[in-house]
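stage 2 :: seqdesign
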């Protein structure tokens, strides 16, 4: 019986190690799709992809579908290596209902909140059919079809499936801050390509702050002359961004922050400030005191003209006014403003900001806009016809929903904070734990990932957005019940490759930066270290003796290290499995990895001779080596079935404690699994 149990155990372990991907695919039937569709059934058929593959469009779509179908053909050719160029561009003349891919669209889609984005996709052995009420749904269907591409010994094919799909939330956004570090047009466009691939549909552009004003104003040209460092988008470039986004079914929502975070505006127009001082663009990042004077009528004249101009430039129905992080200090330091507050019965500066917001609201309404703001604007007396974007916590988010405000969740989706995809993935705009009424559910517009650019440049920004934002996209599109983290990571790895094929540089940026850091072509030792570290999370990187500015170097080891590293996650999972079953194959794999880490420090020191800049990472490399040695020692005891003495345990735990110290604004990500090995060797609870 013991022998049979041993055999059964080994079979189960083997299935875990070699067959888990198959098992997941069988359970979810989602292949490598992200987001997971609402409904998917298989039919056992397949459509082989050959050089004769063609696309037809019928119905009454917006012309954008022809460009997207043409782009689909080119991407399909690039993916398969097949020469599919005989069709060239898909046009209105391509309407053969027997084509291998038939797209049927009932009507043109509008770039509006709550527009119909549903689609169905059916793959049989002779034809693929995408049915959608609007071309927006058809575009989503094309992205799903690209993700379905499969291979076997016969070549490329589409597996036989029947998909019915629609988004869970209407607002599936990404905020891209282009102020703290300016992002050129190519960054914007490739970001939009990535968003379309995972069915995000709102790009929220943060366009003004203390560090700059990033849009050309023809009414107030002083803004770009004095408040941009020459880094701004012309109005024609903004129109190009809007066209490019609209072609992919994505809305562009602008944000112009008032009344605080307005140092740039006050640099151009100091007469609008609450405190009379000399203003210049802020070079550092954070929360500052400069703020518009809400008692000055010239402020409202200025904002009326500026917002009217920008409202005509940006056609979307929503207009974001920020409203966040007003310290109130400049208002408190102005006797005239204090007197105004007293005369109007205002108890604190937020009462004054609410009055300010009420003055702005008619300006936006007369221009056909719905006002949006961060959750600081949720104050007593604020009209219900505005949208609250929650960033400071769930309390304000839940409160706004229950009070009847439309709301968007960003708290938990701050991708600049270097948190893992699993954290974002399990953060739900409408969680099971909250009992919303049916009416309250309707107030939840969706969610929005936020990419603030204090610590990124055009070179590194993709690595902070992708691929983690694809997990957020799934949370906002797919059913709440889809929340298997392991399966999410399985599919995320494949989606990451698809995003790279679109031109996103979340992977490609790394090797050039490693060569720069190593000051040479041999980056092996540096790469071993970089693969097990992550930048400090939350706001810790900008703490202590290092204050980053707009001109700081962003080419250091913390910049090449990426969030949510795969190797530490895999090593941790394998360590956990090994400690449960002591499989020899896992034992060898873990030991081999520990040996690589242990021996790497000497190679790192050789690299250091050519690159003094890496001196900040010496402690990381040394700690990794010592940590690995401790892990190898633990593996020896575990293998021998012997238990070390208390002194050994104390010494090894000191090593793990030391290894948790940051170096180069980074942290080792493999300390916990090694500590588990040490505790297991000593017979301690390692959970």
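stage 2 :: out
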């Amino acid at each position: 019986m013991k022998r049979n149990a041993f055999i059964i155990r080994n079979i189960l372990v083997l299935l875990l190690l070699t067959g888990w991907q198959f098992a997941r695919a069988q359970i979810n039937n989602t292949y490598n799709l992200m987001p997971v569709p609402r409904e998917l059934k298989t039919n056992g058929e397949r459509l082989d992809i050959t050089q004769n593959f063609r696309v037809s469009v019928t119905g009454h779509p917006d012309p954008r579908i022809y460009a997207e179908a043409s782009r689909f053909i080119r991407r399909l050719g690039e993916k398969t290596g097949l020469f599919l160029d005989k069709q060239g561009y898909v046009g209105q003349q391509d309407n053969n209902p027997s084509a291998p891919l038939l797209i049927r669209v009932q009507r043109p889609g509008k770039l509006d909140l709550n527009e119909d984005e549903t689609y169905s996709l059916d793959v049989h052995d002779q034809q693929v059919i995408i049915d959608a009420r609007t071309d927006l749904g058809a575009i989503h269907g094309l992205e799903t079809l690209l993700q379905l591409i499969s291979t076997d010994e016969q070549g490329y094919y589409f597996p036989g499936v029947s998909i019915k799909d629609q988004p869970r939330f209407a607002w599936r956004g990404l905020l891209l801050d282009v102020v703290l570090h300016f992002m050129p047009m190519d960054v914007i466009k490739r970001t939009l390509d990535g968003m379309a691939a995972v069915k995000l549909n709102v790009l929220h552009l943060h366009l003004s702050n203390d560090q700059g004003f990033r849009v050309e104003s023809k009414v107030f040209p002083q803004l770009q002359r004095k408040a941009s460092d020459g880094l701004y988008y012309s109005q024609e470039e903004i129109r190009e961004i809007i066209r490019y986004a609209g072609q992919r079914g994505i809305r562009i929502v602008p944000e112009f922050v008032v009344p605080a975070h307005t140092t740039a505006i006050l640099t151009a127009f100091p007469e609008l400030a609450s405190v009379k001082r000399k203003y210049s663009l802020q070079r550092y990042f954070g929360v500052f005191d400069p703020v518009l004077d809400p008692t000055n009528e010239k402020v409202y004249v200025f904002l009326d003209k500026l917002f009217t101009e920008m409202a005509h430039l940006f056609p979307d129905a929503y207009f974001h006014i920020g409203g966040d992080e007003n310290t109130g200090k400049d208002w408190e330091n102005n006797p005239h403003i204090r007197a105004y507050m007293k005369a109007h019965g205002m108890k604190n500066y937020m009462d004054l900001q609410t009055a300010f917001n009420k003055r702005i609201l008619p300006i936006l309404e007369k221009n056909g806009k719905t006002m949006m703001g961060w959750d600081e604007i949720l104050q007593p007396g604020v009209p219900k016809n505005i949208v609250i974007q929650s960033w400071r916590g769930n309390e304000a988010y839940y409160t706004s929903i229950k009070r009847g405000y439309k709301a968007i969740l960003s708290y938990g989706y701050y991708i600049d904070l270097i948190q893992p995809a699993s954290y974002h993935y399990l953060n739900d705009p409408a969680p099971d734990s909250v009992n919303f009424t049916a009416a309250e559910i309707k107030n939840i517009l969706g969610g929005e990932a936020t990419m603030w650019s204090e610590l990124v440049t055009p070179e590194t920004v993709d690595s902070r957005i992708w691929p983690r934002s694809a997990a957020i996209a799934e949370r906002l599109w797919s059913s709440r019940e889809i929340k298997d983290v392991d399966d999410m990571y399985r599919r995320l790895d494949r989606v990451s490759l698809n995003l790279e094929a679109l031109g996103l540089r979340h992977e490609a940026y790394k090797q050039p930066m490693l060569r720069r850091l190593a000051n040479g072509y041999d980056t092996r030792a540096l790469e071993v270290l970089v693969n097990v570290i992550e930048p400090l999370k939350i706001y810790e990187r900008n703490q202590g003796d290092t204050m980053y500015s707009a001109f700081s170097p962003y080419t250091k080891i913390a910049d090449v290290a990426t969030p949510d590293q795969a190797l530490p996650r895999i090593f941790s999972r394998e360590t956990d499995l090994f400690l449960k079953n002591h499989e020899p194959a896992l034992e060898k794999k873990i030991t081999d990895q520990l040996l690589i880490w242990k021996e790497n420090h000497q190679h790192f020191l050789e690299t250091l001779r050519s690159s003094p800049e890496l001196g900040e990472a010496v402690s990381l490399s040394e700690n990794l080596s010592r940590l690995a040695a401790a892990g190898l020692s633990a593996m020896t005891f575990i293998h021998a079935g012997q238990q070390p003495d208390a002194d050994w345990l104390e010494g090894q735990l000191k090593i793990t404690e030391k290894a948790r110290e940051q170096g180069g604004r980074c942290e080792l990500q493999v300390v916990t699994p090694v500590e588990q090995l040490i505790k297991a060797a000593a017979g301690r609870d390692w959970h």
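stage 3 :: structure notes
- The two ends are 30 Å apart (CA to CA).
- Residues 1-29 have pLDDT under 50 and may be disordered.
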